[in-house]
Specification:
Layout lengths: L3 H4 L10 E2 H10 L4 H8 L5 E2 L2 H7 L9 H9 L16
Length: about 90
Amino acid sequence: MVTRDEVAPYLETMDFPALKEDIVREAEKLGAPEEVLKALRGMPPVDYHNKDEVLRSAKTEIAEETPAEKAVKARDKKHQRVAEYLRTPTL
């Protein structure tokens, strides 16, 4: 599986909004390796409005969370989806 950083260079010349087929065609024209093309072909067939939407939809490896991102999630009690009685009490 490819990373987002491997896919991103093949999206630099793309004009958005664009269809999935146009994105794949542009990547082929730029000489993208087969792994990148496979990731782009795995996207849903919708209009993409920018490069970030493509990178989120492409079948790429998800980067590991940084310690700072993990800390932010740990402090966010609203979206942890843990039953109230299972949470550790705060003082």
